[in-house]
Task: structure prediction
Amino acid sequence: MNKIKVTAVLVLVTVGGMWYFYPSEGAVDSVNGDINDTIVSGQEEPDSNNMEASVNDSITLEESTSQVMIAATFLNLKEPEQQVDPLAFFIQLDTHTLSLTDYPIAEKAELQVNGQIINAGFTWESESELAHHRQGTLKVPNQLSSGEPIWTDDSGNLTLILNDLDDKPEITFTW
Result:
């Protein structure tokens, strides 16, 4: 029962922190006070100038360990014009119990597509490197050594794996 209470508190604190630190831009129009359509519909409109993902997007998947909440968005699905190269994922890690700064995201990432496993060539472009709140874009070239693309619209499922995070040997996100 205590574990359920702790988990519920952790979820509430994480959601509250995300609401506080990442408020929805324009939730209330400052000129006329109207609530934007994005709040009414519960979905944010894609913003081609901002690759930051919303947890409300259907392409944003969430997983957790006992101490870390992880959200991953496959940006090539969110921004179709970027389907060619590189493959890009917006990653958000949140915790209040341990430091995330030493977790080497690019080194621990791998992709699985159509029986292929890609575990090299990843880069991490950080937007925030706070000890308890990290976010940024994980990228990998969309090309196998043979020159074939790793992923296309016809590839089927793509799975991003983050290995050895907190108490789980792997965290998987499948689109």
Q: What stands out?
A: The longest strand covers residues 87-94. Residues 19-56 have pLDDT under 50 and may be disordered.
